[in-house]
Every structure is written in structure tokens, then in C-alpha cells.
């Protein structure tokens, strides 16, 4: 369960960092937004290394589902846009997929 905490915190820092770049490059805000963007993305990378997984690729794949949940939350809370029904369905499917990747049985590829 600690993995989900690391995933969630990493997602918040990744989204915040990318949003800061978005504000600068798409919304015409000050170039000073690059400073918190880079710091936030650095914290994101450090947090993602805390995930307890044997392989980085599997951890990153599972993280994708949590990232989507956090993104929909960001959409609702920060950008004040109500998620659509398709957003909720897609989010649920992604969380199920991420859980299968992280906790599912391991089948041999051979």
C-alpha cells in the first residue's frame, strides 16, 4: 500500500511541474514559472524511485494508472472543470490495469 502513496505523491509533483510549464508556454505567464516546474519534476523523479518494485518498467506502467486518477483530480480541483462520465470510466479501467500490472500473477513470456 505504500507504493500507492509514492505513486500519488509523484503524480502530484509531476502534474504540478508540467502545469507550471503549461502556464508559462501556453498561458503567457512569467518565465519564472520554470523554476518551480523544474523543482517539482525533480521531486517527482525522486519520489518514483521510492516505489518497491523489482523492475522500473513495471513500476512506471503501474504508476500510469495512478497518474490518470491524479490528473482527473487536478482537472476538477485546480482547473475547476467537471470530469465527464467517460473520464470516470476511463480512469477506472486504468486503475484496474495498473493493479493487474502491479499485483497480478507473473506468467512466463517464454
TrEMBL record:
Membrane disposition: Multi-pass membrane protein
Subcellular location: Cell membrane
Keywords for the protein's UniProt record, in alphabetical order: Cell membrane, Membrane, Transmembrane, Transmembrane helix
Major localisation: membrane
Pfam families reported in the protein's UniProt record: UPF0060
Keyword flag Transcription regulation: no
UniProt cross-references to SUPFAM superfamilies, sorted A to Z: Multidrug resistance efflux transporter EmrE (SSF103481)
Record bears the keyword Transmembrane helix: yes
CC annotations in GO: plasma membrane
This protein's name: YnfA family protein
The organism of origin for this protein: Pseudomonas hamedanensis
Amino acid at each position: 500500500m505504500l507504493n500507492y502513496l509514492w505513486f500519488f505523491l509523484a503524480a502530484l509533483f509531476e502534474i504540478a511541474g508540467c502545469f507550471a510549464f503549461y502556464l508559462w508556454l501556453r498561458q503567457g505567464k512569467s518565465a519564472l514559472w520554470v523554476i518551480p516546474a523544474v523543482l517539482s519534476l525533480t521531486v517527482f523523479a525522486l519520489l518514483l524511485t521510492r516505489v518497491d518494485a523489482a523492475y522500473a518498467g513495471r513500476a512506471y506502467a503501474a504508476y500510469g494508472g495512478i497518474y490518470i486518477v491524479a490528473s482527473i483530480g487536478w482537472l476538477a480541483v485546480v482547473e475547476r472543470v467537471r470530469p465527464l462520465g467517460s473520464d470516470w470510466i476511463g480512469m477506472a479501467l486504468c486503475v484496474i490495469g495498473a493493479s493487474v500490472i502491479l499485483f497480478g500473477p507473473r506468467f512466463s513470456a517464454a
